[in-house]
Amino acid sequence: MDQIGFILLLVVVMGGMMWWQSKKAKEQQKKVKDFRSNLQPGTEVITIGQIIGTVVSVDEQYEEVVIDSEGSKLRVGFNAISREYVRPAYVSDDEVDENGNPLPKDDQDGQNAEAEYGEAQVNVEESLAANNAETAGAAETEKEAK
C-alpha cells in the first residue's frame, strides 16, 4: 500500500510541475505576442541576429517589419524581433576603481582614498620608476657576474 501511495505522490508532483511549466511558457508566449503586435514605427528593437535598428513600418497582414539600421533598411518577419533595445549604461573608467567598484561621489579624482578605504592608493609613475630601477640594477649585476 505504501508503494501505491508513493507512486501516486510522484504522479501528482510530476503533473504539478508539468502544469506550472506550461503556464509559464504560455505567459511568456503571450508577452512576446503582445510586444510584436504592438510594434510601432520609431521603436528601437534588436533582432535574433543581434541587428539593432528602428522600426520604420509594420505590416500585420504578412507579419513583416521594416527596420532601419544606420541607413540600411531590412525587412524581417515578426519572429525575427527579439525584444525592444535598451542601450546599456556606460560607465567611464574614471568613475570606477581598479576592481570595477564605483568611486564615492565626493571622491571622483581619487583624493582622500586612504581615509575612505583604509588603504593607500598606488602612484603608478613612482611604482614604474622603482620597478625600472630595480630591473636596471639586476641587469647590471648580471653583466658584472659574467
UniProtKB/TrEMBL annotation:
Lineage of source species: Bacteria, Bacillati, Actinomycetota, Actinomycetes, Bifidobacteriales
Native species: Bifidobacterium santillanense
InterPro entries linked to this entry: Preprotein_translocase_YajC
Localisation: Cell membrane
Location (main, coarse): membrane
Protein family: Belongs to the YajC family.
TM annotation in the entry: 6-22
Name assigned to this protein: Preprotein translocase subunit YajC
One Pfam family in the UniProt entry: YajC
Membrane topology: Single-pass membrane protein
Keywords on record: Cell membrane, Membrane, Protein transport, Translocation, Transmembrane, Transmembrane helix, Transport
Disordered, as annotated region: 91-119
Domain of life of the native organism: Bacteria
